[in-house]
């Protein structure tokens, strides 16, 4: 009888330690996954995902809005601040006539963190290279 209890206790302990090991591994995995994403990829995800920028901005040509290549060329030439524009601290310099269309997006853009805005800038700068 005692042997059986001992056996059960051992099995119990083994299962418990296995479970906690598994949990530990999962946390580590999530941790690295979060770190591995570069600013470029984060920006790309926002541009094509929740920011919906891609609906109006293609990379290399004009659609509803100017292409990212055109926007970034003008921003570079004028040494303008893209983040300031996205934070509505600076007005439009690319196509002020159609600014009303771009303006509708600030409701979403306002919800982005500084890190997300930086990532958008990194993506828009590097994707045209
Ligand atoms: C509904 C269509 C639409 C969507 C969606 C959209 N834009 Fe625009 N965007 C425009 C139009 C039209 C312009 C041209 C007007 C202007 O220059 O502001 C523009 C201009 C811009 C400019 C140049 C601003 C300047 O100085 O003139 C930037 C930068 C920009 N968009 C970034 C973004 C980003 C980032 C997103 C996603 C978070 C986005 N846009 C989503 C339509 C859109």
Write the layout of secondary structure elements.
Elements: H1 2-36, H2 39-48, H3 68-77, H4 82-86, H5 99-103, H6 106-109, H7 114-126
Helix pairs in contact: 2-7
Bound molecules: heme C (HEC).
Q: What is the CA-based Rg, rounded? A: 25 Å
Assigned CATH architecture of the largest domain: Orthogonal Bundle
Q: Helical amount among residues, as a percent range? A: 55-70%
Number of strands: 0
- What's the number of structural domains? 2
User: Please, how many helices?
Assistant: 7
Largest sheet: none
- The CATH superfamily label of the largest domain reads Cytochrome c-like domain
Query: CATH topology of the largest domain, which one?
Result: Cytochrome Bc1 Complex, Chain D, domain 2
Average pLDDT score:
85
Q: What structural class do helix, strand and pairing data support? A: mainly alpha
Estimated share of beta-strand residues: under 5%
Low-confidence residue ranges:
none
Bound heterogens, unique: heme C
Query: In one word, what is the shape?
Result: elongated
- Per CATH, the class of the largest domain reads Mainly Alpha
Give the CA-CA distance, first to last residue: 75 Å
